[in-house]
């Protein structure tokens, strides 16, 4: 691996010399290769992928910048992103993750609620991005139900059909899309800046126990979608949910809608990781349809 183009980009972005002393591979990423670039007294976090994936890193950089501008949850600072002959790369502040303290979860609940309380003016985003490595369309829309139907559920169903997942998925999908309005009776979501991929693997704490979130798939959407994903693979601690609700209370219909929101991620897992997620997706759709029959 030739690190020179990345070192040059770091030097251009920071305006100071960076002598690379050591490169340490980091575990944990699903999609990209991640490294800690160590210099004298300064380290950087770097993600690498094929050169064609530059738009993915450009969108991630835009998301990190917008999240950081809310000054709510700690976000690794963007240093640079770019392309060499063989690779696309994203360079961020390296954060030495530490262990959570007794306040970390509560703080995260408050900070996420404050992020979600900042008003946005439309659903969607100013650019498309990716969820995992799946393209995620974010066309602007003033109507959340239309957005969720077309840009989220139908989009993943189309990708699934193209991969050959037909059968029940193909009959349940359109039925669910037709019934979407029923899940929103008496509830009007407001657009909020979402992290968009908020599972436990994208949340940590810094050395002082402050929450840190990274690897976003940002858009403006119903905040319940972010919260739902925190419950999808294990769930966060009760302190987190209590602090979130104390800061920004939740509508009772969230309990049902969270399944609708997590269906998007399960369909995405089906498309990314294969048929192991098919049964789960079908069961979620069955149970959602049973709620509105
Ligand atoms: P991927 O896009 O491949 O899923 P991630 O952005 O999740 O990659 O990063 C991979 C791993 O690197 C994470 O699980 C986390 O442990 C670590 N990591 C992410 N960002 C930073 C950072 N700014 N500083 C230090 N470690 C980080």
From TrEMBL:
Name listed for the protein in its UniProt record: Fructosamine-3-kinase
UniProt similarity note: Belongs to the fructosamine kinase family.
Top-level lineage group: Bacteria
Keywords assigned by UniProt, alphabetized: Kinase, Transferase
Signal peptide from the UniProt entry: none
One Gene Ontology MF term: kinase activity
Annotated organism of origin: Methyloglobulus morosus KoM1
Keyword Membrane applies: no
Keyword Kinase assigned: yes
Cited Gene3D superfamilies: 3.90.1200.10, Phosphorylase Kinase, domain 1
